[in-house]
Design goal:
Blueprint (H helix, E strand, L loop, with lengths): L11 E5 L5 E6 H9 L4 E2 L17 E3 L8 H5 L3 H8 L15 E4 L14 E4 L1 H7 L4 H4 L12 H13 L4
Parallel strand pairs: 1-4
Antiparallel strand pairs: 1-2, 3-4, 5-6
Length: 168
């Protein structure tokens, strides 16, 4: 009997738009379906000749009719939940190990900050109250890491694949 835990981990595939901008990471099975249905094309077809696992070589697929949405479109709706998920529901200020329950503007709105991925972090109520309408520097606080947009990790993986020569 096969248990779910006994199955090998799924191989992820980076899906890029018609301009080769990474859009999302998809499971291998979904990528195969998209290619089989003609909605996507494999970017490295030479790697598919492996006899031991023909599907394991797919790393990049292109959706020729798709275009990645802009950051402003990604900001619409559910932003708080997405920021919390990106930051693993933990306060992003150094020295704090509390669970995040608020979203903090690194550069406060009252100082000209905006509600963008790079200016929002998950934060606990105590740190948010301590920081108030100040920047972290003004409040004597430091971030654990620099916040990044929702697809930044895809761009890094895309660059790694291109450097390795996996894409044709």
């Amino acid at each position: 009997m096969t248990h779910k835990a006994d199955k090998p981990p799924g191989i992820s595939v980076i899906a890029v738009d018609r301009n080769y901008v990474p859009m999302m990471e998809v499971a291998r099975r979904k990528a195969i379906r998209a290619v089989a249905s003609g909605r996507a094309q494999v970017l490295n077809p030479a790697n598919l000749d492996r006899s031991e696992d023909p599907c394991g070589a797919i790393y990049l697929i292109i959706f020729p009719h798709a275009q990645a949405c802009s950051e402003s479109k990604l900001l619409m709706g559910r932003l708080d939940r997405r920021v919390m998920r990106r930051d693993h529901y933990t306060c992003q200020y150094e020295g704090c190990h509390n669970r995040a329950d608020t979203i903090d503007h690194i550069i406060p709105l009252c100082q000209g900050g905006r509600s963008t991925w790079q200016n929002l972090v998950a934060c606990c109520l105590l740190c948010n109250q301590h920081k108030g309408g100040r920047t972290p520097e003004q409040a004597g606080m430091r971030l654990k890491k620099v916040p990044e947009g929702p697809r930044a990790h895809l761009f890094r993986r895309f660059e790694e694949i291109l450097k390795d020569g996996s894409a044709a």
